[in-house]
Amino acid sequence: MRAHHDGTRCVHAGLPEPVPGQPFLPGPVFAAPYHLDPWAGPAVAPNGYGRPDNPTRRLLEAAIGELEGGGCRVFASGQAAITGLLLTLLRPGDTVVLPADGYFPVRAFATDTLAGLGVRVLLAPTAGPYPPFDGVRLVLLETPANPGLDVADVPALAERAHAAGALVAVDNTTATPLGQRPLELGADLVVASGTKALTGHSDLLLGYVASRSAELLDPVTAWRTVTGAVPGAFDAWLAHRSLATLDLRLARQTANAGALARLLAERPDVTGLRWPGLPGDPAHPVASVQMRRMPGVLSFDLGDADRVGRFLDAARLVAAATSFGGLHTTADRRAQWGDDTPPGFVRLSCGVEDTVDLVADVTGALDAAG
Ligand SMILES: *Cc1c(COP(=O)(O)O)cnc(C)c1O
């Protein structure tokens, strides 16, 4: 069959063969236990108990797996997926390389929990330089990194890691599988939050691990079953429903980010602008080769917390909110959460509003912020 393009793939991802009289996407199946065959027990049907088995979840996993190009297991949140992956793969005495500038709670988990279990944690900036990978069990890359938006060269780092016998996982949250396919770029595993652009409606938490290797995915499945970090059926169904519009949402978000990046680049009252799609951005050379589309997120500095407050107060179309990738444009002053960004640092996530409206609103709000 001819390979379909992104929009088509999203609309059809994970859907069962059509059945007359049935919906395109079957409704959520709510069950803790399922009926068992009284003689054969759980051996003859896939569904026995809700923690390991749920058909709504399996359809979502088929969908995300199709988009990533591998097998997929979904989790209750991105953090559950990442910590689950780390605890599945790492043993006392192992060394893991994590991004120094990536999602802050992952670093906190590493220093609080992994280090306490006797795992050696090395932090490397996403843009490099990376330490030698000899003796390393796992290299986790986050690209583009949240919130700084630096980019890691996945094929080059995967080659180096594999030569040293290390595994490579890529956090694909910011890019989504339409923006970048880490498994095709040489990564062994993808891990991500589906809470952000993947599902895009700011109404659920989700995470997933994807891989082409059953040897890697089977222990992740076993980990999820024993720890129980599964999403509920309704969230899985909402996520699957939302996937159909991923291509459309990303197209508008990327267009909006491009327009805002060009606006912000011209403003003397904005510093530190980062967007990998800008030709002058340090991440652009690698991003333009390995990414299939640019993210709807950009970051910049307004100098201090007060000015960020005035900007958000004046903006009608930019809501103060954390997280990113949703339909509504949002901005987050990251330092308010206690991470290590400067006080005026803003991560702005473009929604799907009309570009002219957004550009006018941000222009007016920056003028009003002084
Ligand atoms: C949000 C995020 C996570 C964690 O996802 P949750 O769904 O909030 O648990 C992990 N990695 C990155 C890059 C994120 O942005």
What report would you give on this structure?
With 370 residues, the protein is an alpha/beta fold. It folds into two domains: 6-243, Type I PLP-dependent aspartate aminotransferase-like (Major domain) (Aspartate Aminotransferase, domain 2); 246-369, Aspartate Aminotransferase, domain 1, CATH 3.90.1150. 36% of the residues lie in helices and 15% in strands. It is built from twelve helices and twelve strands. Helix 5 (154-163) links the parallel strand 4 (138-142) and strand 5. Helix 2 runs parallel beside helix 8 and helix 3 (78-89) runs parallel beside helix 4. The longest helix has 20 residues, at 246-265. The model has no long low-confidence stretch (mean pLDDT 97). The structure holds pyridoxal-5'-phosphate. Pyridoxal-5'-phosphate (PLP) is lined by residues 77-79, 82, 103, 142, 146, 171, 173-174, 193, 195-196, 205, 207. Belongs to the trans-sulfuration enzymes family.
Features:
single chain; 370 residues; alpha/beta; Aspartate Aminotransferase, domain 2; Aspartate Aminotransferase, domain 1; 2 domains; seven-stranded mixed sheet; five-stranded mixed sheet; 36% helix; globular; binds pyridoxal-5'-phosphate; pyridoxal phosphate; pyridoxal phosphate binding; EC 4.4.1.1
Draw up the topology in text.
Layout: H1 6-12, H2 55-68, E1 71-75, H3 78-89, E2 95-99, H4 104-114, E3 120-124, E4 138-142, H5 154-163, E5 167-171, H6 176-179, E6 189-193, E7 207-211, H7 214-227, H8 233-243, H9 246-265, E8 271-274, H10 284-290, E9 297-301, H11 305-314, E10 319-320, E11 330-333, E12 345-349, H12 355-369
Protein name: Cystathionine gamma-lyase
EC number: 4.4.1.1
Cofactor: pyridoxal 5'-phosphate
